[in-house]
Amino acid sequence: MKTNVDGLILKELNYGENDGIITVLTKEQGIVSCYARGVRNIKHPSFAATKQLTFSRLTLYQGKGMYIIDEAKTIRSFYNICSDVEKYALSQYLCELVIKTTPENVPSEGQLELLLNCLHLLMEGSKSCEMIKAIFELRLALISGGMPGVLFCSECGKYDDDEMFFDYEENKLYCSECFKGSDTVCRLSSGALRAMRFILLSEPKKLFSFTISKASLDQLSECAEKYMTCLVGSKINTLAYYYQIKSLL
Ligand SMILES: [Zn+2]
Q1: Among 47, 77, 107, which residue terminates a domain?
Q2: What is the pLDDT of residue 64?
Q3: Which of 76, 86, 150, 213 is most buried as measured by Cβ atoms within 10 A of its Cβ?
Q4: pTM for the structure as a whole
């Protein structure tokens, strides 16, 4: 029996001469691995639709232990991102984060919508890589069930302060009076904290509609990355690659 799913190709693995195994993020079933026979041949009708960063309609049938792609049609390609090396490196990191945090066979509409929106903004170029990265990390943490506890001081309940301290290992926020020192802490100005709360609490449509100073964005970025790295708990190769590329620019 054949089934149709719409999914974003997150990863391609070459297999044999012209075959591939692709990892797809679908709304209905989360992460799905599919065998794609012959698709690495440029003349294959599903060649473009099975490339990484392509959102495609896939017709699948169940093989032994893995889906097999019968047909793939492109809905939208984000492949142009590859023409900008920094955006490309960031897109690889976003895809790896999704693979590492999204379960198989569980509906993953939130992850798919977030990633499609971020890839769209990367292509369009209206938001910086730094901002897209921080928003993606925090929002993905939230969707994955790891809401950062940044709503009030975990000791006294204070909501606002000139500066607050977020312990990304403990997942606890402290005001300046309650903070007693820690090696796993990020400082957050009131602007950075406001932005962090906005990202976590706003509706998906408004997610990118805020402004932030460079200094606060730097704090927000550090905090989002450290929290996400802690949540993933294993090495994220594409994060190192992203910084390597940035250092060359
Ligand atoms: Zn406090």
Answers
A1: 77
A2: 87
A3: 150
A4: 0.95
